[in-house]
Amino acid sequence: MQRILTILLPILMKKRSWLLIAVVGWLALSGNGLSLPSGSLLPDLSIDRLWKEPRDILVDRVEDARDAQQETIEQFQTAMEKFKAVTGFDGGDLEAQYEKLNAAYEHSAARATEIGTRIDKVTSAANTLLDEWRAELKDYHDPKLRAIAERQFDDTRLRAERLIGAMRAVEQRTEPVLALFRDQVLYLKHNLNARAISSLDAERGRVQQNVDVLIRDMQAAIDEANAFIETLKIAS
Hints:
Radius of gyration: 24 Å
Order of helices and strands: HHHHHH
Distance between the termini: 39 Å
Structural class: mainly alpha
Number of helices: 6
């Protein structure tokens, strides 16, 4: 049965058959121990793929990735505010300040991880759309229409590659900024005294500069995502 499902599910997925919904529901509810094929054989098996067109799914995924980046910008700004608050600390419970800064760092790291997950989903949705589109190009009988469709395909493919590349670049740039934050948090954790505050204050300019550059690049990726979404909506 497992082997049969491995063969049938990709076919049903491509056609977005209601039979697939029944199969998935049966697998989820039955207690027979069967499982879906591995992700390498059937990537991105999500409920929206059962009834949405690949183009619409891609728009949704790009919007999700864009929103995740916007939330990450806001979180990094919050973390920077917490960092500044610690450097301006002039008495009281220093450990409480550390806890706030550490929480801000952890939230920032979680947001950065979410970006990576969202980009993976954009990549998967883009590949699904382009694979289906590429396969259908050969179905054209009119050479002029085929040429137009091929140009549209190439334009969409290049735009998708540029968007995903921009998002991946931003994802990579978050790592050194997070590492810089993490260093400051660790130093404060093990040196809850005035000397630690002085050290953090000396690093404030460098941290701020790194955060500003990251936010600028992330905003550029958000703008790229918005432009890509508009292109897909116009073409649909």
